Amino acid sequence: QVQLVESGGGSVQAGGSLRLSCAASPYTYNNACMGWFRQAPGKEREGVANIYFGGETTYYAASVKGRFTISQDNAKNTVYLQMNSLKPEDTAMYYCAADLGGSCSVFGYWGQGTQVTVSS
Fold first, then answer.
1. 44: Cβ contacts below 8 Å, ≥ 6 apart
2. How far apart are CA 10 and CA 45, in angstroms?
3. Sheet containing 68-73: order of strands
4. What is the pLDDT of residues 45-73, one digit of tens each?
């Protein structure tokens, strides 16, 4: 069983930055795919970025490409989402998820979420 705990959310003004963290315990597999998702009120959940725990970036949503960076620290079993040039439309609950099978399509483990609010 994998537990995921997100942190780092908060409120910022447009143009600001936040870094989200997702700590996995007790461990993850080297071929696991880790993803960040977000869901705004009244909208469907959308994928933001994926990364293999081995470090190969697989995906960024077009809406965040060039502004967000996903990274991982194997030693800490932690995945990060650096969010720069934040926009009000980035406001959402952000979730970390793990696909232990590595396909980046079947995320069986989810964190509780961390709120990001961007004001104009």
1. none
2. 19
3. 3-7, 18-25, 78-83, 68-73
4. 999 999 976 777 779 999 999 999 999 88
